[in-house]
Amino acid sequence: MKRTTEFVLTERTKLKRLPKRAFYRRKIIYDILDEGFICHVGFVDRDHPVVIPTAYGRVADMLYIHGSAASRMLRSLATAIPVCVAVTLVDGLVLARSIFHHSMNYRSVVIFGTAIAVKDKKEKLRALRSFSEHVLPGRWADVREPNKGELKQTLVLRIPLREASAKSRSGGPMDEKSDYRLRVWAGEVPLRIIPGTPIRDPRSEHEVPIPSYLSNIMARFRA
Amino acid sequence: MKRTTEFVLTERTKLKRLPKRAFYRRKIIYDILDEGFICHVGFVDRDHPVVIPTAYGRVADMLYIHGSAASRMLRSLATAIPVCVAVTLVDGLVLARSIFHHSMNYRSVVIFGTAIAVKDKKEKLRALRSFSEHVLPGRWADVREPNKGELKQTLVLRIPLREASAKSRSGGPMDEKSDYRLRVWAGEVPLRIIPGTPIRDPRSEHEVPIPSYLSNIMARFRA
User: Fold this and answer.
1) Does ipTM exceed 0.90?
2) A51 contacts in chain B (CB < 8 Å)
């Protein structure tokens, strides 16, 4: 399939409601994927929906998800199974003058595709590296890489990124004209995730200072 | 169905992997549900899984979800459809000495059930109140309630809480014995969501101070 800058709209990714909030550009979608920590993977198990939170990473136009949490998906490792993956970043609360116009600011991505278990060792290692570097760049080079046995125990699923869309909302409330006269505080409360002070493992045998890749990212988050 | 303090384990909620991380007590599950802001709802649309993030609220043993985001679910409003709802709170990063033992601290709930559209006006209002009070207690009483037209436009789905489980991980890393000798920083980086300074809607006609229910919750979050 030819790679395009924008994902092609499909029946499933086309937004029926508030289409102005929808985006199909790879750059926008990938930025959201790269900022999130966990995804929610949906699949069908004997006609029933199952949703499971799990770690993920992206390598170019490929999404990798950690398979351990989704072991039920893996009954049949040989065949690709349809999945839907959602990543949602909550950016704030939108407080309007009426309940009806209350909302949230967010950026979210929904991906439709098929997941298949990665067997190739090199690809598996690349996927695991993407899980790690995506959450904490620099960590991979600092710690012990997975050995053969660990690699074998770890299930990784590959989902080619072919059908995806993003949705986002930002800014303050949009109230009914007649409600602006109401004496109520209205606006936006930004929300963000910040790291607290790192807690050193009490079982540590050495006094190792907090690595710069961690203190840097913490400074950036807390700024 | 008799109400029990614990959810009864089912084939779907029984944890095969790391069963020590699983909980079935209503209190634990409800505390997680009450702390989260958004849920991910999974359903099956023509044999394919769909996952959508949306707002929710809980009233006793009933979960309510906002239906607008899931309008595709509502093709047949008359019948209940199977859903899976996941709520995940990310509490921190777990940095081990080996990639393999890296993890996340989290609390998550997965609910299996059937969703049906709420038609009764009083129940709908109660559900909308739960969406609002759950995110920002005190807000409901301060703003204009939904009128008849708004109530009609808002889709709310009811999911009785009958089959659910929680999973959680906390604390530092658990490394392989031989890895403790490695000179690498290991431990836990707590993560939390904090509110930023509220941004007043520039369209406001009145100078209204930030209400105490908002400043109180902000102080608590930032403490």
Assistant:
1) yes
2) 40-42, 51, 84-86, 110
